Amino acid sequence: MRNINLNRLLLTIKWDLVSNWKVTLRMTLSIMFGILCFFAIDILSTRGDTYSPEYSTDKAQALAASLSFIAVLFMSVCASMIFTTMKTKQQRISLLMQPASNMEKFIVKILYSSVGAFIVFIAALFAADLLRALLDFILNQRYIGMVSFWFLKNIFFFCDGIVFFNAGISQQINDMATWLLVIEIIVTGYMTFILGGTLFRQHSWLCTMGMVFIIVYTAGYILIELDFTSYVHRIFFQHNPISPTTLFILTDMALAALIAFELWASYKLFCRMQVINNKWTNL
């Protein structure tokens, strides 16, 4: 069977949507309820504030910024739950017996936990935002602009809000390199949770966070306790100075290699999945 066939891929996506619509609906309602609770707490805590057009804009921007953190948390959880619909034996059999290649099934799961999760979050945010506007008008007789619009604006222009890239080294590098680095950092974090979700069967998000903590702690120990940073500085900067552009290119290449490795490892783990696996891992 060919690895990728467009018609087969589209049929697999359709099957996945139909099979998991209840999971998707529960996910949408759950995140909508969570966002609505966040909005309700804010409304009740600001009932005595003086309303003005400037206050409305500032408040909407502040809420949108807070929602960015919630969105990142939600997307990481969805990434780590990439195979949550394969918990039971029957669900695993149903997916593995689909007339599609492993590559197509893996792509479908990647799309469901990324594009699908993002659409779910946006739909839940818009619904909760409309209820927030109604509740705020009833309780406080005021109207604060749609927070969801500011949230989307922050997504499309997120690079303008990153202070680190507005000074210093970024002035010597074009905007494309900056965007590429930011996107690679985001994708690297996301693929880490994809790999964790593929590896762990139980409490995948917590196990992935633990794995990341161990890796970061070990790397920090090597960099600080073993004075590895001084060694790197002598090799790359003191004796052979490199330009900021070269440093950015090397960083981009390292992150791209890490993303490729995580994607490859996740796919290989998925290919090894059987109907009956280890209780804790998919090895």
- Secondary structure: helix percent: over 70%
Going by helix content, strand content and strand pairing, the class is mainly alpha
Share of residues in strands = under 5%
User: End-to-end span in angstroms?
Assistant: 24 Å
- How many alpha or pi helices? 10
Overall mean pLDDT stands at: 79
Main pleated-sheet profile: none
In N-to-C order, the SSE pattern is HHHHHHHHHH
Low-confidence spans: 161-170
- Using only C-alpha atoms, the radius of gyration works out to 23 Å
Count of distinct strands = 0
Oligomer: single chain
Write structural notes for this entry.
The protein is mostly helical. The protein has ten helices and no strands. The longest helix has 39 residues. The two termini are 24 Å apart. About 4% of the residues have low confidence.
List descriptors.
single chain; 283 residues; mainly alpha; 0% strand
List the helices and strands and how they pair.
Elements: H1 6-19, H2 21-45, H3 53-80, H4 89-96, H5 102-140, H6 147-156, H7 175-199, H8 204-224, H9 228-238, H10 244-271
Helix pairs in contact: 1-5, 2-5, 3-5, 3-6, 3-7, 7-8, 7-10
Q: What's this, in brief?
A:
This protein is mainly α and 283 residues long. It is 74% helix and 0% strand. Helix 3 packs antiparallel against helix 5 and helix 3 packs across helix 6 (147-156).
